[in-house]
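request received
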Amino acid sequence: MIPSLQDLFNILPPVIIGAGILIALTLEMFVKPAKKIIPHFAFLVFLFTAYYSLMTMDKETYSLNTLMSGGGLTNILYFIFTFGSAIVVLISYDFIRKKDIVSSEYYILLMSAVLGMMIMASAKDFLMVFLGLEQMSVCFYILAGINRRNLLSNEASLKYFLLGAFATGFIVYGIAFIYGASGSLSYLVITNAIVTGQNITFLTIGLLLFIIGFSFKIAAFPFHMWVPDVYQGAPTTVSAFMSTTGKTAAFAVLIALLLPLFTVGNYQIFGPVLSLLAALSMIYGSIVAIAQKDIKRMLAYSSIAHAGYMLIGIAAGIPAGSAGVIYYLLAYTFMNIGAFGIVAYLEGVEETNLHIEDYAGLANQKPVLAALLSLFMFALAGIPPLAGFFGKYYVFVAAIKAGLVWLALVGIVSSAISVYFYLRLVVYMYFRENSKTITVFDSSYSMLGIIIAALLVIIVGVFPNTVVELITHFIS
Amino acid sequence: MENNIITSVLLFVPLVGAMLVLLFPQKNAPLIRFWGLFVSLVTFVVSMVIYTGFDPSVSGFQFVHKIAWIPSLNITYYLGIDGLSILLILLTTFITPLSLISSWKSTGHKVKEFTFFMLLLEVGMLGVFLSLDIFLFYIFWEAMLIPMYFIIGIWGGKRRIYASVKFFIFTMAGSLVMLVAMIWLAVYASEQLGSFTTNLLDLYKVGPNVPHNIQSWMFLAFTLSFAIKVPLFPLHTWLPDAHVEAPTAGSVILAGVLLKMGTYGLIRFCLPLFPQSSIQFAPYISVLAIIGIIYGALVAMVQSDMKKLVAYSSVAHLGFVVLGIFAFTEEAMQGAIIQMVNHGLSTGALFLLVGVIYERTHTREIADYGGIAKIVPVYATALMFTSLSSIGLPGLNGFIGEFLILLGTFKSSVLGNWWFAVFATSGVIFAAVYLLWMYQRVCFGKVTHDKLNKLEDLNTRELVTLLPIFVFIVWIGIYPSTFLRLSEVFSNSLINYIMKI
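response:
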């Protein structure tokens, strides 16, 4: 099948990113000051794609027969990827120079990873999902280890690669089962197969393996082992990138696959499985985060807990649940990039200033950063009126609508626990005196990125209506 | 219904004021202090405008302001005032400027942040009393934790970190349970009314229809959250810590207004939303309230720290309020509402007075004082006056509230047993014991420590904070109908409504 121009036009956002990658690679080869140009170029490409995705949202189409979809929900996800990445570029700019990391490759890898995410988000076919996933994951493996001279970074990369490959194994094995049972890789055909009930056992096994594989990618318990080490070892901005946009991409696949199964196929068998994963992730993430002294590790465990909250929305198995997850992903992307952005801002040239005690008395030394970090912590803890609260509210509403009151109760128990460790950072910054003054390299680019994230956390939290209306409009 | 913007003005004056504080130069502390005071006074003036326009003979909400906020989930920005909230709103706008004046000297550092958080706290408290949409209510209810948390944590005493975190987690844990109950109720409303709604007035129609056993759970979930805030025995343990560690202004706001949010919530939400369960659980809650009254008083008696003593006395006083709420008679309800105001005034003043002397001597141990009545007569008189008001001496405010509550409890058909009133009365006696005993040890006898001789009496600023409170203490004591008439129609219709069901 040869793609027509119309096909490409229907999925223009990934095409733009793809073209951006090619241009950046060419620039890298032929232009001298590429190091300076490429970050700005990547930023503009991301920003333009985000804008374009928003503008072309109401045109829902398919491309390459039904391999990929464009417009609608897909574009909302595109927006999360690209706008999130634009902020990541801002917080990375000075961080990369501070750490002396090869600069051009870093930004090109960011763009390549985003291309993979976009393919995942628009895929309506297991083959496309797999292509997108590998594109994204390989970039992640390299990005995690891009700080070559750092041992932890290397370890993170290797560990992520081994476990990631393992997860991919699950996914491919699952896809094989699904193909064997239904003779197709298209979501549509498989949903129909579920409805007619042919080869249901093998389909279920295949889907279960597929879900397990993706549980690795979204960092859900008990498939989370790589998360703390990788988020700690990878350069901080890379952790910000992986934990937000990467999670969004993996969740996008789960939503696109599972929501039709739940609603059209009336196939509820994965409901209890996902509920269990959600409950365990929330509780495990929140409890273990309490014991963490390293801020990046703490944020890693918090990321596991947040995967749990999002899984509630999927386990609910109703459109409102999936809408909640997408809102949550949007909110989480800004909260978490903001939080990691500040950690990256404060981090020293070597891996210093990452211990929670280094933040003691920060409110005296860096009042603005301390206030912003507190804002992100309150948002992550789900204190109203910030975006994190409405995300939780939304998925809890879905859970209760679907009759999963117990899951909502587990959710609040874990929220109450998580307040403790989010607040602890605030305690250190505001209520303790500095034992030492930390050296901080000021960066106006980072500051800009962090402030944009903070504003979005407030605006999306106080006025969630526009976002919610868009999502619910396209999901039903 | 006509939208009345003045309720929103009341809410946004301190909010905008707080945002503007951030633009002030950090170094100019007096300017920031005056600005904070100015904003809180403007808020007070706005609340007085509302008061003069308030019609106490109308049952239902006045000054309603309603606009669609999150239409996709049918959430509205919905404010309104009735006979219950008007008194508490006035109390809030009255206490806030006073506590700002009281902290004029004592918050030496970070004045800008302090003023910012105090004004934000006022927004949160007013929002809680104004909201008629449970989602909006929850936002204010939770958001208000943040400023209080910082006020205790930054300007508090030695164990401030422990106290502030405990305060935060206790309240948050309770309110999260309430959140699930709120969502459940809204989802249930979508089955009954056809649309998901968080509008309180719509939920009033839905709540009583909730099947009995689920209603019990709903009631308990809401009550848990409010009981922590009140605090009802045995959920009170955060209170002494928070009160003792908070700076004076924080304690005054905590005692004066924050605790009332719990009892307000019980009246506004638990009773009308779940009337059957409220009646079913009334005896149990009343027992806890009475245990609180006696326990609070006994523990207060043995405290060596003046602030802790006042803190435990709050547990006892709020026990009275809860008892009044769950007696389900009009007198007791009226008494409970006026007693909320009384406690705000008396205990607020007690904390101010403890703060005054602590600023001078930096100790709150009763044993470090003795015979100061001779050295600081004005202070001693003020302390006597406030103590008597707190004890419930006839002629002062405390008497009115306690009398009405006890009267209503005696007559209560729901509790159906006059032993409740008998035990509660013993609390009044205990209150006299612990407060007068403390007074005796602090003010009478020989001057026990030499440095006490250099103690200065109340200065003008301190008198300015105390005198307005004293005026109201006497006013309520002598002519309570000014205040009782505001909540009369409300209490009447609420009790009738519940007893009918």
